[in-house]
From TrEMBL:
The keyword Disulfide bond does not apply. Pfam families: FGGY_C, FGGY_N. ATP binds at residues 16-18, 270, 314, 318, 415. Sn-glycerol 3-phosphate binds at residues 16, 86-87, 138, 248. This is Glycerol kinase. Key enzyme in the regulation of glycerol uptake and metabolism. Catalyzes the phosphorylation of glycerol to yield sn-glycerol 3-phosphate. The keyword Transferase applies. The lineage of its organism: Bacteria, Bacillati, Actinomycetota, Actinomycetes, Kitasatosporales. It comes from Streptomyces coffeae. Glycerol binds at residues 86-87, 138, 248-249.
Length: 509
């Protein structure tokens, strides 16, 4: 049983496939975890949706579950933090609290034609100087614009202030703090920075971009810092301060204590996201990366990052399991891949919905190359894992080109870090050590840390750094010549993925 005098902070991690609540003690150790999956809705090819009402119900369930497992009451929590799947877009009725449509998920590609149209003669870079982002279907602003255009009567209601826009953080905070009865409509800089609507310098909504996308400002949340008390929870968490919000990848940066310029982390989930701390000034990317918010603590100067977003990494293992049926469970892939010494010349480029960084090619589609009769399912299993390492290598190279900062180690987290073969290959292809922390749930930890800083549980970043502990480390073993030869093969395979969806995309436009 918990000690009544101990201090506890809860974090809600609302992810792409599930929602979790983790309760941490003052030492940053996990006290209890509860997790529940939600449905993935695929109305058409390339379309991905979630039911926001279902997500809110699952969040309430995991909060209750974590409290029960910890043997704690809500009044024993000092603070609550939020971390969330980014870019996933919800529009809801302020009076009823009901979403006007399913949430459009970050993976959804229905706005590709709209983004091409918005780019016009300027192309993908039309808003990049202001937002740090290319015009791509990934981001939430175009998703909101699509809903305004396709849900009957919605635009008029939005202009009248009857509709609220939010990414998942806004949806949860609004519901946690009262919903239709006084719910707080806010977002933080990290989530706002992924909408394609926020000015990276002023940290405010950009009126020119709102006008270009025909998005009424009346529907937008107030932009706040990542660590401050937004409001007080009602219901099962009555009285608990809601004190942080961070997009999941930024939360992982914070949980991995990457507080110094040049510190980097990679999170391996459905996709993978590598972020490099570039300090208190945004670094423009010329190499296909995103200039993004890292975090902002209260009234302090914001911290910026370069980000390489990879759409498909862990999802490729799921495809190998579910669509091909070669393995029965994800953990079977490592021994199968380890049963051969190399990939047999096979490469898999998982451009299932285009390629993200550093290419941003929505016309790309997945390819398997280099096949001969020698190749077995074990070689393909190895190629599945290596696809994650090579995509990460491309992002690291782009970061160096943009920032001049060379990564000396890579901190890693997420489910795929349990795969030692993958982590060794990652170290091999980067030529630097790969380090996994003791607490691998770094997204939740980051949200908890930020909420705890806002409420005095922890005093400063140095105290948080003191909690970080190494669990495992992989050092490079591959020779430079082999590394570059294999990398050249990978780049050839990537080129083969280009152009497959071009005719369909032109038809849509």
């Amino acid at each position: 049983m918990p000690n009544r005098s101990d201090t506890y902070v809860a974090a809600i991690d609302q992810g792409t496939t599930s929602s979790r609540c983790i309760i941490f003690d003052q030492g940053g150790r996990i006290v209890a975890v509860d997790q529940r999956e939600h449905r993935q809705i695929f109305p058409k090819p390339g379309w991905v949706e979630h039911d926001a009402t279902e997500i809110w119900a699952k969040v309430q369930a995991v909060v209750a579950g974590a409290l029960a497992k910890a043997g704690l009451r809500a009044d024993q929590l000092t603070a609550l933090g939020i971390t969330n799947q980014r870019e996933t877009t919800v529009l809801w009725d302020r009076a009823t609290g009901k979403p006007v449509h399913n949430a459009i998920v970050w993976q959804d590609t229905r706005t590709s034609a709209l983004c091409t149209e918005l780019g016009g003669e300027h192309g993908q870079d039309r808003f990049r100087d202001t937002t740090g982002l290319p015009l791509a279907s990934y981001f939430s602003g175009p998703k909101a614009a699509w809903l305004l255009e396709h849900v009957p009567g919605l635009r008029r209601r939005a202009e009248l202030g009857e509709i609220a826009f939010g990414t998942i953080d806004s949806w949860l905070i609004w519901n946690l703090t009262g919903g239709t009865d006084g719910g707080v409509h806010v977002t933080d800089v990290t989530n706002a920075g992924r909408t394609l609507l926020m000015d990276l310098e002023t940290l405010q909504w950009d009126s020119a971009i709102l006008s270009a996308m025909s998005i009424p400002e009346a529907m937008l949340p107030e932009i706040r810092s990542s660590a401050e008390v937004y409001g007080t929870a009602v219901g099962q968490l009555a009285g608990v301060p809601v004190a942080s919000a961070l997009g999941d990848q930024q939360a992982a940066v914070f949980g991995q204590t990457c507080y110094g310029v040049g510190e980097a982390k990679n999170t391996y989930g459905t996709g993978s996201f590598l972020l490099l701390n570039t300090g208190d000034r945004p670094v423009p990317s010329k190499s296909g990366l995103l200039t993004t918010m890292g975090y902002r603590l209260g009234g302090e100067r914001p911290v910026y990052c370069l980000e390489g977003s990879i759409a498909i990494t862990g999802a490729l293992v799921q495809w190998f399991r579910d669509q091909l049926g070669i393995i029965r469970s994800a953990d079977e892939i490592e021994p199968l891949a380890a049963s051969v010494s190399d990939n047999g010349g096979a490469y898999i480029v998982p451009a299932f919905s285009g390629l993200f960084a550093p290419y941003w090619r929505s016309d790309a589609r997945g390819v398997v190359t280099g096949l001969t009769r020698y190749v077995t399912k074990a070689h393909l299993a190895r190629a599945v894992l290596e696809a994650t390492s090579w995509q990460t290598r491309e992002v690291v190279d782009a970061m160096y080109q943009d920032s001049g900062v060379r990564i000396t180690t890579l901190k890693v987290d997420g489910g795929m870090t349990a795969n030692g073969l993958l982590m060794q290959h990652q170290a091999d292809v980067l030529g630097v050590p790969v380090i996994r922390p003791v607490v691998s749930e770094t997204t939740c930890l980051g949200a908890a840390y930020a909420a705890g800083l806002a409420t005095g549980v922890w005093q400063d970043l140095d105290e948080l750094r003191s909690h970080w502990q190494r669990d495992a480390e992989w050092s490079p073993r591959m020779g430079a010549e082999e590394r570059e030869r294999e990398y050249g093969n990978w780049r050839m395979a990537v080129e083969r993925s280009f152009g497959w969806h071009k005719e369909d995309r032109d038809a849509e436009a």
